[in-house]
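User: Sequence in, structure out. Go.
Assistant: Echoing your sequence, followed by the structure tokens.
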Amino acid sequence: MVIKVLKSILYLFLVLIAAVLLIAGTAWTLTFKHDIHESHSTPYLRDDVISIDAPQSAPVWEVLLMGDAGDATLVPWHKTLEMAAEMAAQKPDQTSVVMLGDNIYFFGYPNLDEGQTEYDQDQLELIDRLDAQLQVSKHSRAELFLVPGNHDWYAEQVDTQAEHVLSYAQRHGASVSFLPWVKGGQPLPEVIHRAGISIIFIDTQWLITADQAGFDQAMHRLEQLLARTQAEHPNNLILATGHHPIQTMGPHAQYYTSRGYAFFMELVGLFTESDQDTHNPPYRRLIAGLNEAFTVDAKVVYAAGHEHSLQVFEALSAAPPAKESSSRGTLKIGADYQLVSGAAHRNKVSGVGHNDNTLFAVATEGLMKLSIYSEGTTVEVISSDGKLLHRQWLR
């Protein structure tokens, strides 16, 4: 009898708690307020930016940039990847393709469960998403690099993905690499040098989660690579690539164009603070570190994904110290230009706005192409249907 009474009291207590939570949740929902903004579903171009025709001379090197292709299908082959392969095949010996992270949604490369000896059908479909990207190199014969993103690291390691990339290269004779990566070691920045351009690869997700000692070591390595590149390849454009952008005007900077998404993120924020948004301390540390490293006397472009849109920014700037001459104007901070190209799949395209540093922005599926000419560098923004949305010099 006593046990029944206690159970009844417990049930009543639980019902009361549930009722209180329901009332509180409903009240919170009804009073939820967050600024909802317009999105650039058609291209935004800042008034002082000029779209140019293609230069008459031939480029010495080209780089295709696209990220967040982790939902791509192998059969049928995803159209943006197929378009990239066709573009790269035109000059495979003078083209690099860089995938800017989140190569497999949602939890990265699948892991075999305890006792499991081979992948099941669902896991094989996830691996096909990676192979769809690797196939760009197989079909075009151009070199392809994959940078890890946060969703790749949600597998708790990226070794299996990197090893699959190496195995694919051997099986198909394709020039594909997963960078930066060292099995069992810290993924410190790495660099390659090509005609007119040096490309640096950075694992920004590892940097976000690294302890301070690891973070400092990576930043020191990055500064060394930048200094060495300046000394040994003084005429090269430096293209640094990673997954997380320094500047963005999308959801990861709390620029919401959908009330539903804003509500979802606010709800998530009641229980945890995402380190994937620019306002949170781990991400702020990353931004500060990259800006400090990239503030050098050289032409630096930083390209990232993560935000599912196409954006071009000019450098951040700050007023010079009061003791210095005011004739110097503002001082550049970080990379001269910053590109966000994380819209390789339509399923991931999200709204985007603009700020004072935005040169171009659009929320559509597509990619970007850097072309290195003797007279300078251009960036092109190309939609998934092959339409040129914008081309400009990066002076």
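User: And one key feature?
Assistant: The first strand starts at residue 44 and ends at 45.
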